[in-house]
Amino acid sequence: MLTFLVISILLALFMVFRMPVAFAMGLAGFLGLAVQLGPRPALSVLERTFFDSTSSFILVAIPLFILMAELLTAGQVTRRAIIACQSWIGHVKGGLAMATIAASVILAALVGSSTASTAAMAASAFPEMRNHNYSQRLAAAVVSVGGTLAVVVPPSIVLVVYGVLTETSIGKLFIAGIIPGLLTATGFVIVIKLIAHLTDQAPRGDAFNLKKAAKDSRHVLPMGALLILVIGAIYGGLASPSEAAALGVMGSLIIVIAQRTISVAGFSSSVSRAVKATVMIVAIVACSAIFSNYLAFTRITHTLLDFVATTDMPRGVIMAIIIITLLVMGMFMDQLAILSLAMPLAFPIALALDFDPVWFGIVVTKTVEIGLLTPPLGLNAYVAAAQTGVPLRKVFLGVTPFLAMEILVLLLLLFFPAITLWLPSLMVR
């Protein structure tokens, strides 16, 4: 136990001094193994763990989904989706903000990254809202909260990483994330509607023009068909997530080439960004496995499981402790760091308490999504503030009512698991 305490302090110090979380976990785990087993056996475990954790076929889905998102973004499909949503519902009071949320759902299904989605919305939707006299606070808040939808809405990279770390079906996680994602977006729209009616922060947009709306939507329809095809293939059991991701890359490449919206330089840049993001994520997965092996050798996980088995605390209380811990971690870390640090301990406890792993994954994902908006390190708020020039304090103030809705949706998922598990229960496989 003393060794575990020392290694935990070392891990905390590594991260305090801004070492990347993957390397911090890998180094701390290796040092712990070296103390427990000796240097040579620790190197042997390191070699085997690194190979086993990075050779899984399901990891192929990560670079493919990222590349699909990069291609569609480089091909301006995401920008066109935002314009189309604004054309259809931007005319009602608060409509531009609602259109931004609708576009964020589409963007989430394309991009899979919350910060990338927030940056894209800040560049396109924020100026449009400001041009129509929306308050800075509301416009920046809508951009921030819209980006969080990419954490839950498939194909979410966070869900893929959770599936890899816990060996949970990524296909079921994707399908399970659909209703919670749409429920969250609906909650955001309700908040915007209330703000629009109770304050003057969200005036009406331009008058509705059916011809313009139809014209703006025509370039988005192929992308919508592609998303239905990718998710439908997984839902119907026709393709694994990795195969569906390959289908998505092929389809996105056909779309951007057919619409002549991507150049050779743009394609090259998309591949480069996808490779960089993939290397970072795979490094986190591998180093998390090293740290998990150290925890297994120290029997810390077994000690926690024994405690759970013998404690008189209701399992709801233990779940509440896990949720609160994740919420606190979300104030200081990004989503992938939280998953890689917390899942080696939290997931076995969830299984011991007989929680469904798919339901637990969505709840955990929803919890880390909330962390993207909470100070002092609400990553989406920082991105929105940097991209829009709105003071950070004002952004955090603006997201407060949306945070209340996020907590409400989280409670609904906790108390009514059927919201999450109904669609996966209908899957062919």
Describe this protein's structure.
About 80% of the residues lie in helices and about 0% in strands. It has one domain (about 1-425). The model has no long low-confidence stretch (mean pLDDT about 80). The protein is an all-alpha fold. It is globular. It contains 22 helices and no strands.
Quick description:
With about 425 residues, this protein is an all-alpha fold. The chain has 22 helices and no strands.
Draw up the topology in text.
Layout: H1 2-16, H2 21-37, H3 39-54, H4 61-74, H5 77-89, H6 95-111, H7 114-131, H8 136-148, H9 157-166, H10 170-176, H11 178-198, H12 210-217, H13 221-235, H14 241-258, H15 264-298, H16 300-310, H17 315-330, H18 335-352, H19 357-371, H20 379-388, H21 392-415, H22 418-425
Helix pairs in contact: 1-2, 2-3, 2-15, 3-15, 4-14, 4-15, 5-6, 5-7, 5-12, 6-7, 6-8, 6-11, 7-8, 7-20, 8-20, 8-21, 9-18, 9-19, 10-22, 11-21, 13-14, 15-18, 16-18, 17-18, 17-19, 18-19, 19-21, 20-21
Can you tell me the residue ranges where pLDDT is under 50 for at least 5 consecutive residues? Answer: none
The helix/strand order is: HHHHHHHHHHHHHHHHHHHHHH
Distance between the termini: 43 Å
Number of helices: 22
Number of domains: 1
Rg calculated over all Cα atoms:
22 Å
- Which outline best applies? globular
Helix fraction? over 70%
Total strands: the figure is 0
InterPro entries: DctM, TRAP_DctM
GO cellular component, one term: plasma membrane
Pfam families: DctM
Function: Part of the tripartite ATP-independent periplasmic (TRAP) transport system.
